[in-house]
Amino acid sequence: MPENDPLIFSLDNGIATIRLNRPEVFNSVNKPLALAFQQHLRDCQADASVRAVLITGTGRAFCAGQDLAEITGPDSPEVADIVEQHYNPIIMLIRELDKPVIAAVNGVAAGAGANIALACDIVVAKESASFIQAFSKIGLIPDSGGTYFLPRLIGMQRASALMMTGDKVSAAEAVQMGMIYKAFADETFEQDVAALVRKLAAMPTKGLAYTKQLLNSTFANDVAQQLRAEGDYQLRAGNTTDYREGVAAFIEKRQPTFTGQ
User: Fold this and answer.
1) Spatial CB neighbours of 242, under 8 Å, sequence gap ≥ 6
2) In the chain, what's the furthest Cα-to-Cα distance?
């Protein structure tokens, strides 16, 4: 794939990497990037060889959100249409993907860029990275699932404050408040991310997918409903090849070899 494409995709040893590649504008999202992003997420869902998906950025930013140049011309689309056609499909594809999705935030994640990261299953960041709910600074509301995910991650009070003030949150602060999983030293970021993604790609993918589906439903269900759902998915997990391999490896005192089946 040409290096000047707005998004670079690669697949290696079961790890699909989606790299936002507009570093000159801090990987801000325009239509070509958004549509390519959607298509690669669909491809990852359809490809059984994909065991984990990594989303990251090129250069000094993860993603600065919407490219404002795309929405300020005389014939520009409505912001609501861009949200509906570009961002909402990305968020839904991430949440419905039957494989773990890891956001490796390599720099600033602002606006929709921050919320795309927070929609992922696991978010890690460079210690020098930051998160900004930048929408209020230009009179917009948080989109791309921000009003859904952020209150669930850090609570209503903090979410309200960050969305209304547009204050910058450092990676260390994001870890402390439960917004993200871990912050890695800048010097070891690439190696630490690679180790995490390799670990997930070697795990029982079906079981991880079932866990993700249960997490997707947990805030909509009451306790009884969630217990029934756990029973249903545990039955499915118990019928997988990976479950049988995991039990056999435990009994035989060896490392399991999972295939995602």
Assistant:
1) 204, 205, 206, 207, 256, 258, 259, 260, 261
2) 68
Q: Report which residue type is found at 173.
A: E
Angle between helices 31-46 and 88-96 (to 10 degrees): 20
Three-state DSSP state, 89: helix
Do the Cβ atoms of 212 and 100 come closer than 8 Å?
yes
The set of residues, in sequence order, having a beta carbon less than 8 Å from that of 261 and lying 6+ positions away, is: 206, 240, 241, 242
Q: Are 127 and 184 in contact (CB under 8 A)?
A: yes
- Partnered with residue 105 across adjacent β-strands are 125
Structure tokens at 11: 């697949």
Measure the CA–CA gap between 21 and 83, rounded to whole angstroms: 20
Contact 52, 102 (CB under 8 A): yes
Interacting residues of 52 by C-beta distance below 8 A, sequence separation 6+: 14, 15, 16, 99, 100, 101, 102, 197, 200, 201, 205
Residues 6+ apart with CB under 8 A from 76: 70
The pLDDT of residue 1 is above 70: no
Residues 19-60 have pLDDT tens digits of: 999 999 999 999 999 999 999 999 999 999 999 999 999 999
